[in-house]
């Protein structure tokens, strides 16, 4: 298991979920030991609402070095689930200048990957250098907006890139995210899609960020590019939200400043021999993570807390095959999202209809926990 953990895992307190014979089980990784904390808190949402979580006691499942992690591609061992359960799963988009440009390109190309390259070059020459240094909602941003409108270059994506309001949307239903080692899904009818490696912050019921994880916000570029009204179809599909491997709790050794300074790396390795690598620096984000959390909370309350994908600057444009067609996933791609202090989230791409179906909803989870006698004293 240590290969997927943060480099300084011995100093970290990590919250996750595993699949056991009894059912989904919250675990805490602390001081090199994995603890079953289901008697302390039967869900990670309940655990994160407790101020004494970092000191929680539980049934010792063994030393981390001795544990193997199971994967959907054949390894035996401990089955890691997404560390999220009852939290709402939200996402923020267009939070980096590069991703803003790519959304504009999708819109103008109408989902046609072949047309995107020429549009990309023209937009980069005109506005690429101007966007990256703008503070959203500022007087300077409003001036650039006015100029772009005058030039006929304004877009709804630029509105959320440099305007006062962030793009916040629901990425997946409660309990629908998948964890490290699981299949991650793209729709079979999508011909232009990509991974989006991101940091995910996790907030308690009061909206306070209490930890962070890694995420893959799988995106179907051709579908979203046809119309922004298809965002739900492009983003919310079976197995299309991956989070993990654990939530790293904020403490004296790891804070939001470490999130702000994080570098998120992406590796894609295809069965056809194709390899793509890249990285995204959180230092270049145009909206602060705490501002994004506050904008999420401004909509309504989240009594079970929420998780928020923070967006990515990584938008793959490298051709995979025919020149000018750009990158798109193929079934069997192995996708690794990693960051030194958050670990490694690795998944293999399947079509949504071939990935394991989402089968355990809130009702099923509550029946399972009640049958195990875990709800009587739950916080």
UniProtKB/TrEMBL annotation:
Swiss-Prot/TrEMBL keywords: Hydrolase, Metal-binding
Domain of life, source organism: Bacteria
Gene3D superfamilies: Fumarylacetoacetase-like, C-terminal domain
Lineage: Bacteria, Pseudomonadati, Pseudomonadota, Alphaproteobacteria, Caulobacterales
Record protein name field: Fumarylacetoacetate (FAA) hydrolase family protein
InterPro entries: FAH (IPR051121), Fumarylacetoacetase_C_sf (IPR036663)
Family designation: Belongs to the FAH family.
Single GO MF annotation: metal ion binding
């Amino acid at each position: 298991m240590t290969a997927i953990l943060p480099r300084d895992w011995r100093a970290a307190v990590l919250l996750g979920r595993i699949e056991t014979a009894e059912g989904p089980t919250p675990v805490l990784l602390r001081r090199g030991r994995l603890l079953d904390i289901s008697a302390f808190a039967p869900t990670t949402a309940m655990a994160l609402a407790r101020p004494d979580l970092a000191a929680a006691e539980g049934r010792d499942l063994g030393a981390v070095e001795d544990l193997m992690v199971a994967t959907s591609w054949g390894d035996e061992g401990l089955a890691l689930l997404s560390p999220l359960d009852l939290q709402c799963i939200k996402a923020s988009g267009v939070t980096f200048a590069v991703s803003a440009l790519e959304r504009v390109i999708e819109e103008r190309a109408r989902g046609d990957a072949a047309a995107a390259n020429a549009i990309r070059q023209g937009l980069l020459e005109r506005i690429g250098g101007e966007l990256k240094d703008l503070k959203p909602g500022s007087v300077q941003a409003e001036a650039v907006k006015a100029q772009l409108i005058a030039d006929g270059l304004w877009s709804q994506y630029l509105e959320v890139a440099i305007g006062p309001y962030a793009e916040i949307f629901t990425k997946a239903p409660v309990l629908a995210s998948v964890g490290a080692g699981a299949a991650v899904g793209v729709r079979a009818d999508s011909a232009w899609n990509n991974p989006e490696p991101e940091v995910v912050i996790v907030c308690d019921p009061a909206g306070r960020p209490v930890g962070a994880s890694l995420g893959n916000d799988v995106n179907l570029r051709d579908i979203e590019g046809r119309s922004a009204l298809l965002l739900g179809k492009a983003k919310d599909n079976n197995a299309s939200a991956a989070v993990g491997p654990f939530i790293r709790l904020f403490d004296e050794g790891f804070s939001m400043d470490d999130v702000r300074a994080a570098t998120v790396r992406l590796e894609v390795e295809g069965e056809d021999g194709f390899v793509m690598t890249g990285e995204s620096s959180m230092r270049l984000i145009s909206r602060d993570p705490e501002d994004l959390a506050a904008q999420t909370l401004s909509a309504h309350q989240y009594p079970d807390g929420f998780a928020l994908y923070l967006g990515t600057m990584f938008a793959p444009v490298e051709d995979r095959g025919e020149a000018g067609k750009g990158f798109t996933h193929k079934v069997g791609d192995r996708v690794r999202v990693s960051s030194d202090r958050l670990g490694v989230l690795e998944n293999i791409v399947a079509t949504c209809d071939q990935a394991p179906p989402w089968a355990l909803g809130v009702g099923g989870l509550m029946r399972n926990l009640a049958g195990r006698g875990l709800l009587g004293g739950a916080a």
